Amino acid sequence: MTYITRFREYIKNSGIRAEKLEKIKEFMLDEFYKKRAIKKEAVHGIDSEIYAIQKARKLNWDTCKASQSFIKTFKKENRISSRRYNKLITRTSSSRKVSSLEDAQNCVESKRPLISIYSSREILNSDHCSFHQEHVPPRTLSYTGERTTEVAVKKKNNTTHSYTVQPVTSADGRLLDKFLLILQEKDDQFGKRVQKDLVVSPNVVIQASKSGRSSDEKHRTFLNEVVRPLVSKKFLLLLDSWKTQANLKKFRAVFPNQDSQLLIFPEESTGHIQTQDLSLFRSWRFIHKEIEHYTHINRTEITITDRQCYINIQSVIHNQLSASQFENLIKSGLIRARIINETSEEPEKPKDVCFKFYDLYCFITNCDERTL
Prior knowledge:
This protein has two domains: 3-77, no CATH class; 102-137 and 156-353, Ribonuclease H-like superfamily/Ribonuclease H (Nucleotidyltransferase, domain 5, 2-Layer Sandwich), CATH 3.30.420. The N and C termini lie far apart (67 Å). Helix 2 crosses helix 3 (45-58) and helix 12 packs across helix 13 (307-321). By secondary structure, the protein is α/β, with parallel strands linked by helices. Helices cover 40% and strands 10% of the residues.
């Protein structure tokens, strides 16, 4: 068989076996995400087999059989396991379109002419990340066979009430110098005494709200006090489809120059193409968890549920992730979302850069301080 004949056969069969398997796995994961993360439906092993066979038929692979070992490997690769559910919710119909990975990527490609106008330094992205005021792990070591397992906390409200951070990153791997921190306050504002006592770091713009989350007013503050001082006239800002921040009139009120543009991710697609969700916030949460763990094991005498502590912790996390070592980490989210068509080296992670607890002393020359 000549090379041309083999190539024609290759095209006719929609690729080689390995390529088909990758397409099948991608389709299976996409369907699983829609069923579990969005529709909250029960999914079983037989469903995974059906997804695999459906995609195989579309790829003209009629002899494909989704074996138990194939399904088991797929679940292991994607950290999927059988779990007993502990809550039933009522199925509600929604008019919102469920966006698949393919839909999200097609949307990015459709905006490629606009994206290509801007350099990587001019392409910006922002998103919200919420933290509980007091984090309590869902599990604890206790005595086998006990009827009730109780855990003490300082305030039960702190385990449900949250505060929000909103940083800005660029496509060249920078974490911009300031970020928005929204703390939860009963009166939607800080009292005079609180304002007087708070020490706010220069990289933090602090706001208060009843919910601890963003709002129309807080978004205007974000544009005016976080984004505006740090950008030039020409930039592209990528945001979620949340109604408040998707309003072009509000954006133009702060940035009237037509060289500054707003690009909104399509609804229900942020899990696929929101770049900060794909990279930055995983590391942000990891550092936050490690700080809480350190204060616990060392019995550090600080009140970790105090306003000032929230500000200090988030300021330190932002400062650490602004280091040049994490440029590839930030860029990796944009590469995975296909916002930029680049390749980068394996990103360094905070676990290896910030928490080398196996090093007993500081690595800086002539510094004899212990790491712990």
